[in-house]
Amino acid sequence: MHRCEQAALAVHPLVKEAGVRSAARLAEQFRPLVIVTLEPVFAFDPGGFRALARSAGAFLVVVPTEEVPSVELDVRLFSGILEASRRRQRDLEPV
Questions:
Q1: What is the pLDDT of residue 1?
Q2: In the chain, which residues have pLDDT < 70?
Q3: Residue 4, Cβ neighbours under 10 Å: how many?
Q4: For residue 55, what are the domain limits?
Q5: pLDDT at residue 11, as a whole number
Q6: Which among 32, 40, 46 is positioned nearest to 87, based on CA atoms?
Q7: For the segment 83-93, what is each residue's pLDDT rounded down to a tens digit?
Q8: How far is Cα 11 from Cα 71, in angstroms, rounded to an integer?
Q9: Could you say which DSSP state residue 81 is in?
Q10: How many domains does the chain have?
Q11: Is the model's pTM score more than 0.70?
Q12: Are 75 and 85 in contact (CB under 8 A)?
């Protein structure tokens, strides 16, 4: 049980809403594993959102609407968390 608690602490589950103007500052401050945005917002500046996710070491999840089914959102979030965690772990490994 202690190992599970430690693992959960390492993930730092937190949901933070950000406007387009504050997204970069918050991504730098919190270093999220996943950044979620709606397709219409993403379409405004796809390259900017990709760069934001890359600089934060986050996985970018783009959803069509806020009404995306919970199961689909869960899968996409958990997949993103796993992928971002793997990337960060690789970055920590000695060359």
A1: 45
A2: 1-14, 95
A3: 8
A4: 2-92
A5: 57
A6: 32
A7: 999 999 888 87
A8: 20
A9: H
A10: 1
A11: yes
A12: no
Question: What is the distance, to the nearest Å, from the Cα of residue 36 to the centroid of all Cα atoms in its chain?
Answer: 6
> Do the Cβ atoms of 63 and 76 come closer than 8 Å?
yes
Q: How far is CA 67 from CA 21, 38, 64, 75, in A?
A: 24, 10, 8, 15
Q: Are 11 and 62 in contact (CB under 8 A)?
A: no
In the prediction, which pLDDT does 92 show?
A: 82
**Hunting for tokens 């937190």 — which residue is that?**
14
Q: What is the largest CA-CA distance in the chain?
A: 44
Structure tokens at 24: 């970069």
How many CA atoms within 13 Å lie on the side-chain side of 17? 1
17, two tokens = 């809403």
What was the pLDDT predicted at 9? 55
Q: Report the C-alpha gap between 92 and 36 in whole angstroms.
A: 25
